[in-house]
Inverse folding.
């Protein structure tokens, strides 16, 4: 059975993967030897303005932040990445964080055995691959899987191997969870989606309040 | 695109092999895949064997180690104390590797306690605490390997990256 559900979880996960890990890691590991083909204009470019991002939707409002807001938050906060080894191969344009990778930010904590960040010719992230005991947590939510792949071109995150997402008492699990960040859409296959009773009560209460406020 | 796919597959294969080799088993079978020899193994061994220590002593060494195609210096190694051997090894202490952009502006700094560098191979190995700093980013760790021909740099142990602020695309920090 495939479960397709619109949730804000993907935006949060995208922030964790993109906003902190890849952006910081790749940058940090390649201090010494810039690529020969790196355009000087790009090296000296002004800070990249925030790109317009899609409306996170009602679900995002419910949990308190949109993808855009999170990304700005990450940019203003210190991020610390630790791993046993840090490697940058600037011939292949890949940064590798190896063994016990830990990405810590005031907004979240990400753990993995290994993380690879691939850059494209414009110095931006092309793909992030997190392998082995991957988890991302914050106060409200968590995600875990054996492997996570973020692909920028598709704005997609795919979690595979014992993948699950949790928010409070609600959780989704499956062998493969694909999340399209721009669409705020996810597909789980084969999937299990469990909604906690409290969530249903909260939703019902919210609907009741809305009905009361609507003019007749 | 093909290059990227090849790279990904190669890295995935390497990761799989590594995972297989470190699977937590108490006793490895005799035919179990072994950890690949790290690229810095020869330099590490040479360091332990005091390579380069019998060379000509030099104080306040300044040695360009990498250039742009235009001829401009990209990286300069400076050391308070060094010995320069005839076999190509340079052994140095209190090392600073200064990085420049093509216009000659400072771009970053690597600081290491001890370094063994081979001039012909253009490969280096730093032993002890190392740090790399540039703008909003600080990298620290223990032991460092770099290779100009391979275009590769590795913080070998205890890697730690602190990003104070994220204002640019990752590659723009290169």
């Amino acid at each position: 059975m495939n479960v397709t559900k619109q949730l804000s979880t993907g935006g949060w996960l995208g922030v964790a993967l993109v906003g902190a890990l890849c952006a910081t890691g790749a940058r940090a590991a390649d201090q010494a030897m810039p690529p020969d083909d790196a355009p000087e204009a790009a090296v000296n470019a002004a800070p990249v303005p925030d790109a317009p991002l899609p409306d996170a939707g009602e679900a995002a409002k419910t949990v308190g932040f949109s993808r855009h807001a999170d990304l700005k938050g990450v940019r203003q906060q210190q991020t610390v990445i630790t791993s046993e080894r840090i490697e940058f191969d600037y011939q292949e344009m890949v940064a590798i964080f190896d063994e016990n990778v830990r990405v810590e930010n005031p907004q979240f904590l990400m753990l993995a055995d290994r993380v690879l960040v691939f850059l494209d010719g414009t110095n931006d992230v092309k793909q992030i691959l997190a392998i082995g005991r991957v988890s991302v947590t914050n106060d409200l939510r968590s995600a875990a899987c054996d492997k996570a792949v973020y692909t920028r071109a598709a704005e997609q995150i795919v979690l595979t191997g014992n993948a699950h997402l949790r928010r409070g008492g609600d959780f989704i699990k499956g062998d493969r969870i694909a999340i399209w960040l721009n669409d705020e859409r996810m597909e789980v296959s084969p999937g299990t989606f469990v909604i906690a009773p409290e969530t249903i009560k909260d939703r019902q209460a919210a609907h009741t309040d809305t009905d009361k406020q609507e003019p007749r | 695109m093909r290059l990227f796919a090849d790279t990904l597959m190669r890295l995935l294969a390497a990761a799989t092999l590594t995972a297989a080799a470190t699977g937590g088993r108490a006793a490895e079978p005799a035919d179990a895949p072994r950890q690949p020899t790290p690229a810095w193994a020869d330099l590490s061994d040479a360091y332990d064997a005091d390579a380069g220590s019998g060379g000509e002593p030099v104080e306040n060494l300044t040695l360009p180690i990498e250039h742009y195609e235009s001829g401009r210096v990209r990286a300069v190694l400076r050391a308070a104390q060094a010995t320069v051997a005839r076999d190509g090894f340079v052994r140095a202490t209190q090392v600073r590797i200064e990085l420049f952009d093509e216009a000659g502006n400072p771009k970053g700094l690597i600081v290491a306690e001890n370094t063994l560098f081979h001039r012909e191979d253009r490969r280096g190995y730093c032993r002890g605490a190392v740090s790399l700093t540039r703008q909003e980013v600080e990298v620290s760790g223990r032991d460092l390997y770099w290779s100009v021909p391979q275009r590769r740099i590795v913080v070998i142990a205890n890697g730690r990256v602190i990003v104070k602020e994220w204002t640019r695309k990752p590659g723009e920090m290169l």
The helical segments of chain B are 2-21, 41-48. Chain B has a mean pLDDT of 80. Residues 2-21 of chain B form the longest helix (20 residues).
